């Protein structure tokens, strides 16, 4: 503390009460701080309510008195500050300056009196005489009346002045920058503060023949006459931002600048009626050598070269073109030499779904950066980024994209694809493959901040892939995803979250497996039930279809002739009855043709087929029922096949004749047989001669 005090005393000589503050700066007079920087001693007295100019060390280079309460600058206020280079008294309450106020400031280069109450009468004759080195004078924002203009006699003393910032308030008639300015051979730069000009014309800038830089931003100009600017041949920078022109003046303005050599042109917010870009707009700029054009914040709806291609080529010198914040629904030019194209905040979404912003007729473009953010883009045409091998940055932020459908394989220099704030939920497999193959060869990074990714089982492959390819993604820590139950999860610990989702999905998969097993089991059970229920029908149709005489059609009994009159179904044990009674009674005596399996079947595997066919080819089937019959597999089979034959081939006409060869109690009979017994007629074999005669007669009748 003490050491620094001594140093300062030796440095400044006469200032007492110096304190070193903890931030390394010094405070003196308890008001200003001062510090060294860039070989300059800077004294900062800003924001301190000062109403008197404080005493300063004579070595000060920069004195900042911004935002105090100074009302005037008295004589010799800075007399000892011979080394002062810059003096800032902006935002005070200055209304008058004494004639000798600046005496001694012969090294002063920059004087800032912005935002005070100075007017035409505040500057005594010769007030600036001492300022022989001044190159920059800022007296803008000093009042909105025509007397706020600096008088010619005051300004013409500033022989070295290069840059002037003033108000230009003249709301009626032609505004002319004063004649005094014509005496300043170095004046190159003019910038306005408060600015209202009714009319500008060839006189307005006439007194500033060497202007290189004009900034009229925020001026209000009611009328722009031809040739206002056409003679400013040295102009390289022109800022007309937010100068509101009627469209007719806009066109005049553009004709005017054809012959200039302007490199940077800012016409932000100059057109406010919906309109197309004038035909041949760019032709006006061909000879200017323009490099940067800001034509943003206007109301252009269409900007393309479709009608007059020849006259609307983007100048080859143009490197930056900013069409942001317009209302474009269509944009297309040949841009072989452009490096930066800003189309932010337009309405090109629909157009770019099918088309490109670039006319590819001239082939390859040098474009390095394209900004398509805020364009309501849902999808982009596949070829949109073709012919632009130098593209480094593609900005598609704040659109409605859900998928990458455009080709990037030609963009071998791509470094950043900004997909932030879109509607991407996940990438499909093809997209992942595409992105990783591009990212592998290039140093591509992708920003997907502000998309609501999904973290459900469907997205699992995508999340896994993202985790494996973390290095591709910018700001991955801030990504969020939405889970199955709509909870928003911050993906700040990617591997852990992926693991958790994997676990959840595993139990989910298990659940699915269980459910599907259950469903399958049910299905099998039902199928089994159905097959069991229709087992006889299935077998009947199966065997019938295998047979040689297959004809699965209901047959009309009266017309159809059968190979056999009756098929006899019986148990082997009762063969005696068949051989000794049935054949003699029915075949020999009555001339009926019977089918008896041991006699009429050829032996072989396909006995079941034979049975089915035999039943099908017989008018009736006679079952000789005995206990042995009930126990025989084949007998039961024959019985059931005959039942099926009745139902499916004879339109429900019964073909079964039951002959009870033995006395059998109802409870011994199977259910189906019992039902038939109850419904249909059946015959019991009487086993006595009298009865037998009747029996055979009845049976013959039934068969025929
Ligand atoms: C001006 O200085 C006063 C006092 O330090 C401060 O309160 C005020 O915020 C300053 N104004 C600006 C515009 O910086
Ligand atoms: C300064 O200006 C005010 C009003 O603008 C005036 O009353 C006063 O006399 C002027 N002072 C000097 C020293 O010119
Ligand atoms: C401005 O143009 C008018 C006619 O358009 C002409 O009479 C006048 O001489 C021009 N002034 C200058 C300074 O060129
Ligand atoms: C252009 O418009 C945007 C959005 O309205 C605004 O943020 C920006 O300040 C404007 N630019 C200029 C230079 O006025
Ligand atoms: C887009 O431009 C409009 C004017 O055309 C402006 O009002 C709006 O704020 C801009 N939006 C963004 C996000 O820059
Ligand atoms: C230009 O791009 C379009 C698709 O946008 C394509 O059909 C055409 O073949 C391309 N022209 C050349 C010269 O490659
Ligand atoms: C892309 O555009 C958005 C919105 O216009 C902006 O915030 C972002 O910084 C841009 N990204 C890059 C890489 O320029
Ligand atoms: C995404 O785009 C690819 C091809 O670029 C396509 O195969 C895939 O089906 C698309 N996915 C969705 C969800 O649209
Ligand atoms: C029984 O099957 C054999 C061979 O499969 C066949 O030749 C024969 O004609 C069949 N008999 C009847 C009555 O269908």
UniProtKB/TrEMBL annotation:
Alphabetically, which GO biological process terms does the record hold? Answer: innate immune response; signal transduction
- Indicate how the chain sits in the lipid bilayer: Single-pass type I membrane protein
Compartment(s): Membrane
Lineage top rank: taxon: Eukaryota
**GO annotations of cellular component type:** plasma membrane
Under InterPro entries, the record lists: Leu-rich_rpt, Leu-rich_rpt_typical-subtyp, LRR_dom_sf, TIR_dom, Toll_tir_struct_dom_sf
Keywords, in A-Z order: Glycoprotein, Immunity, Innate immunity, Leucine-rich repeat, Membrane, Receptor, Repeat, Signal, Transmembrane, Transmembrane helix
Q: Where is the signal peptide?
A: 1-20
| Residue ranges of every copy of the TIR domain listed in the record | 562-703
Query: Mainly resides where?
Result: membrane
- Residues forming coiled coils: none
Q: Which Gene3D superfamilies has this protein been placed in?
A: Ribonuclease Inhibitor (3.80.10.10), Toll/interleukin-1 receptor homology (TIR) domain (3.40.50.10140)
The record's listing under SMART domains reads: LRR_TYP, TIR
Q: Which GO terms describe its molecular function?
A: signaling receptor activity
Q: Does the keyword Coiled coil apply?
A: no
Its family? Belongs to the Toll-like receptor family.
Protein name per the record: TIR domain-containing protein
């Amino acid at each position: 503390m003490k050491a620094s005090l001594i140093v300062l005393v030796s440095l400044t000589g006469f200032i007492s009460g110096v304190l070193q503050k903890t931030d390394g700066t010094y405070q003196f007079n308890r008001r200003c701080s001062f510090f060294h920087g860039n070989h300059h001693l800077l004294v900062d007295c800003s924001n301190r309510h000062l109403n008197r100019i404080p005493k300063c060390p004579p070595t000060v280079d920069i004195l900042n008195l911004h935002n105090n309460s100074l009302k005037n600058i008295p004589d010799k206020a800075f007399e000892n500050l011979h080394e002062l280079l810059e003096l800032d008294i902006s935002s005070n309450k200055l209304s008058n300056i004494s004639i000798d106020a600046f005496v001694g400031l012969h090294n002063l280069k920059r004087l800032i009196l912005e935002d005070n109450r100075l007017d035409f009468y505040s500057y005594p004759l010769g007030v600036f005489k001492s300022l022989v080195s001044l190159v920059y004078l800022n007296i803008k924002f000093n009042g909105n009346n025509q007397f706020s203009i600096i008088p010619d006699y005051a300004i013409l003393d500033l022989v070295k002045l290069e840059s002037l910032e003033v108000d230009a308030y003249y709301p009626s008639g032609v505004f002319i920058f004063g004649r005094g300015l014509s005496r300043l051979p170095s004046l190159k730069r003019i910038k306005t503060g408060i600015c209202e000009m009714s009319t500008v014309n060839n006189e307005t800038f006439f007194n500033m023949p060497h202007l290189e830089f004009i900034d009229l931003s925020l001026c209000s100009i009611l009328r722009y006459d031809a040739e206002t600017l056409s003679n400013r041949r040295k102009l390289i920078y022109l800022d007309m931002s937010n100068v509101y022109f009627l469209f007719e003046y806009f066109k005049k303005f553009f004709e005017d600048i054809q012959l200039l050599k302007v490199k940077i042109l800012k016409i932000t917010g100059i057109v406010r009626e919906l309109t197309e870009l004038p035909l041949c707009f760019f032709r006006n700029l061909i000879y200017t050598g323009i490099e940067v054009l800001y034509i943003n914040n206007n109301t252009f709806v269409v900007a393309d070269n479709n009608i007059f291609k020849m006259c609307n080529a983007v100048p080859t010198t143009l490197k930056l073109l900013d069409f942001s914040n317009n209302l474009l629904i269509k944009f297309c030019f040949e841009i072989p030499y452009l490096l930066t194209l800003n189309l932010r905040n337009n309405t090109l979404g629909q157009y770019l779904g099918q088309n490109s912003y670039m006319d590819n007729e001239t082939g390859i473009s040098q474009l390095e950066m394209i900004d398509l953010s805020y364009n309501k883009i849902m999808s982009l045409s596949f070829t949109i980024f073709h012919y632009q091998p130098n593209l480094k940055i593609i900005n598609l932020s704040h659109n409605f994209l859900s998928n990458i459908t455009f080709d990037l394989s030609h963009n071998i220099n791509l470094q950043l694809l900004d997909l932030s704030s879109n509607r991407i939920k996940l990438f499909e497999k093809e997209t992942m493959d595409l992105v990783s193959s591009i990212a592998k060869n290039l140093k591509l990074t992708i920003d997907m901040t502000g998309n609501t990714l999904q973290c459900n089982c469907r997205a699992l492959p995508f999340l896994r892939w993202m985790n494996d390819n973390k290095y591709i993604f910018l700001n991955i820590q801030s990504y969020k995803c939405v889970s199955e139950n709509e909870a928003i999860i911050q993906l700040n610990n990617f591997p852990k979250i992926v693991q958790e989702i994997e676990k959840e999905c595993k139990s989910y998969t298990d659940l699915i497996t269980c459910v599907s097993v259950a469903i399958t089991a049910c299905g099998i059970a039902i199928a089994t039930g159905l097959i069991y229920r229709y087992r006889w029908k299935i077998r009947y149709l199966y065997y019938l279809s295998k047979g040689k005489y297959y004809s699965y059609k209901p047959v009309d009994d009266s017309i159809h002739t059968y190979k056999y009159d009756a098929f006899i179904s019986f148990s082997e044990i009762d063969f005696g009855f068949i051989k000794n009674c049935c054949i003699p009674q029915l075949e020999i005596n009555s001339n009926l043709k019977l089918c008896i399996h041991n006699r009429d079947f050829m032996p072989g595997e396909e006995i079941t087929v034979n049975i089915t066919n035999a039943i099908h080819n017989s008018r009736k089937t006679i079952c000789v029922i005995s206990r042995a019959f009930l126990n025989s597999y084949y007998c039961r089979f024959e019985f059931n096949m005959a039942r099926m034959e009745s139902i499916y081939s004879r339109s429900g006409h019964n073909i079964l004749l039951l002959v009870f060869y033995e006395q059998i109690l109802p409870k011994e009979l199977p259910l189906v047989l019992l039902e038939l017994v109850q419904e249909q007629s059946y015959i019991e074999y009487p086993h006595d001669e009298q009865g037998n005669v009747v029996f055979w007669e009845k049976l013959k009748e039934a068969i025929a």
